[in-house]
Amino acid sequence: MDKIILSEEQLIALEKFIQKRGIKEPDVIAEILDHFACKVEELMTEYPHNNFETAVRRAHQSFGTTGFRTLAKAYEDGLSNEIWHVYKHAALDTILSPKILLILSIGFVANPFYKILAQLFTYNNWLTPKDCLLLILISILLLWRITMYIVLNNSFGNLFSFTKKNRPQNLWQLKVGRVFSLSSISILIGQFMIPNTFNINGMAIVCSVLITMELFCFSAHEETIRCIVALYGAKHLTS
Question: Where are the domains of the chain?
């Protein structure tokens, strides 16, 4: 007997079946649908007396008590490993590229800039030296993020727009965005660990180091996004 191939309507029904089981991300649904549809086709071919609904129910039962969660977890783990693998290579590429000279230059310039800003604010009793450092780090973080999303939006359309409702929330999009959040949070946490006893000169050195690290992480993250889009996002690109 020839292998049964599901129709477009049946595939849509399987997709809705998956969504009703709590799977929301389009890329995860597509990954599960591939396995699910193959199993349904196999059962309908092997047991031609069963209708589509019966084959769907038996196919779902074949995945065990966890249902689709095992497939979703395997996809998520593979995606996480892929993203961190790409990020490590992007970080190495940043170190070996001319871009690192610009990053180091900005970090070097941050030293005298911090001193001027801190002396102005502390002289007027507006902020402490440590508060000035936090202000600079947050400003650079926001400026870089806005710039990065503008560049990415120009390259990839709604995949990286500012409003979530205008882009599909695939799992790979969410995870690659978290790389940025983790690097940003770790640097800001590092700022809070700096002793308050540091004077302006000490804080200026720390400022240069943290800004260099911040820009380095952002540069590697931007390259990671471009690589992951090439791997996972080509079919989701919009004009």
Answer: 8-67, 76-236
